[in-house]
Design brief:
Number of strands: 4
Order of helices and strands: EHEHEHE
Shape: elongated
Structural class: alpha/beta
Number of helices: 3
Helix content: 25-40%
Oligomer: single chain
Radius of gyration: 15 Å
């Protein structure tokens, strides 16, 4: 199965949570979620448009759900995190 959807959530800054005397600012975030429930491994080539999806939906992050992510996908998401884009697998 292959699916894409958006997830909206309210999050607090971790840095602010660690300072109990400070009011914690919350913000709404949208994340593009792609589910790849396949028996075979999922590489970067199976999610070529995920960055476009993030841009199209003005989302702040990306989540790829896969049973067996390949190194190419893990490395791609790590590169996005280095650009301050929330990206997980």
């Amino acid at each position: 199965a292959n699916a894409e959807f958006l997830c909206d959530g309210i999050v607090a800054s971790v840095a602010d949570v660690m300072q109990p005397d400070k009011a914690i600012p919350f913000e709404r975030r949208t994340i593009v979620v792609q589910c790849k429930a396949w028996a075979r491994a999922v590489g970067k080539s199976y999610v070529p448009d995920i960055q476009d999806s993030r841009d199209r939906h003005h989302a702040s992050g990306i989540l790829v759900v896969a049973l067996a992510p390949r190194r190419s996908l893990v490395d791609h998401l790590a590169a996005l995190r280095k650009r301050n884009i929330w990206a997980e697998c």
